[in-house]
Amino acid sequence: MYPISNLYATYLRDRDREFVARCEVDGIVYDRSVMVDFTIENSLSLSNELELGTVIPNKLTIKFRMIEQFPPNARIVPYLGLYINPAWQEAGFAWQDAEVPWQGGVSEWLPLGEFFVDRRERVGDLWTYTCYDKLIFGDVPYVSSLTYPATMKAVWDEICGRLDYTYDSSVQINASYRIPVAPTGYSMRQVLMHICSAHAACAYMDKAGTLKWRSIKATEKPVFEMSPSDYIRIKQTNPVKSYSRVVVTYDEEDKLTYEAGTGPDSQTMFVICPYATQQITDNILAAIDGYSYQPVSITPRGFPQLDQGDRLQLEVFSSVPWENASISWQDAHFPWDGLSTHETLILHQELRYKGGFSMQVEAPSISEQQSEFVVEGTLTGQVNRLAQNSVRFGKPYYGVTHSKERGIVVDRSDGLADMTLNADELRFRADGQDALWFDIPSRRFKFSGTLEAADGVFSGTIRAGKIIGGTIEGTNISASVITGNTINGGSINGTIISGAAIYGGVITGPLIQTGESYPRIRLNSSGRLLEAESSSSNALVISPNESGVPALYFKSDGNVGTYIQHVSGTGLLISVFQGSATISPGREINLSPGGGFDIRVPAWSRFYGLSNGRSLQQELDSIYAAIAAVRN
Known about the structure:
mainly beta; Phage tail proteins - horseshoe like beta roll fold; 7 helices; 39 strands; rod-shaped
């Protein structure tokens, strides 16, 4: 209940009271000369009974008779005052509280809320503005900058800071309550609702524009009393509504819930909170267990200081004349004065001003029969069937789940395999391990399993970094590395081809080798060489073009020591670049007779005997010296 002065409270109950109204629009005050009327709707619940976690904007519908119009999103604050014409001898308040002149006047102005223009309509010079309070600004997506898990208090403060909400001490957030992941997909107002529901509370903007909580507690006391003189009509709409059980739904799609307490559905408080735990559910029950209210519809004489959620104490005349009583004395459970006392709360109220002030207060409830046996209408049934059969975020549909985080996910019921598809990812998994996926940075599909065709044959061209298999067959096979026991193909192209057996009409590739380790034979297209290698530095090399003539090289320790080639017009050329040319003992050099072969050496001094290390020239010189000695 909004605080008012004793003077205002006293004159509110006066039979001769007179209400006056004015309105402030962007700082400019308009009186009844242009302001025609207004209606304000305050709600704690929009359903047929009490709910937890509601954050409902207050609504103002106001009419002005004027030519000009207010700017978009203009701020409008309606006020209500009481015209006081005091008879001082009858005053029921202290002298110091009489803040009005001796001749009378208007009491303090009571604000009825802070509203902002949402839409407008004009008929002639009559403008009708539909306005809402600041809670309407919360209907925008919530993109949090916090690190999660985060406390509900931190999330609440971040949202209130962004929306410029001011809240008071009625907001009491449990410091241990946390939100595990960022609430993606929710609006700011929805997140506020979930935090309120976890605390058995509802939120609303009060008449001064301050965000407040209305905590629902079984121990709360009435804040306002109404006697039969304070209302025009009262109607009891159902028996007393009470709560002894709580069911909190934390997954609306799969209907996953936590429960606490016992009782039928008519005594159950149903709550929606994605961040609920069993402990939160138990705490909600501890707050509302035994909470009750009398469902009523009241037409009060007019008390504008009342807020939605205020708990009221009502005095209702319910007696009967004794001569008409048809019950026994001991069963007559009503007081002698005929007034019964009930407690209720304001779930919805409507304030109207049109020259005078009136209001309507309602506290509805669902009957026990409606709670236990819900009968769906035609539209409700169709909506529920659509909800069951449609594909929605986070709802499995024959193994398909559609979410904002992962896109489309398809799961087997046994968990053996799943598939993920979105703009950044295409991935097939088996037993939780990647089997086939698209590598976005490298623009490549990757496969970790075995690739097999239905009929055992792949047509067209297969290109890969490395192909390994028992038998590879194809018209054209191209790869950097092809390894297999048997490779059959009309044309095989690859940088490296390795296999136990390779069959094909043509095998083409930059490098063909018998193995990756030594010894091996390599066919290298870059130098058009055939190499028989025992190591990287020792090999027999055939070059197809050495100064225009094929040659056979002997490479030792990384250097070419000898090469043999046929030189046109010269014959066979054997060149030794390092070391010496040695013919092993026990071997002969046979020159065919009649061939006209010559053996030519640079000088006789270049022929040496291994036994004494002497050259042929030295031996000839010794022989010549001996002959000369004999002759002399």
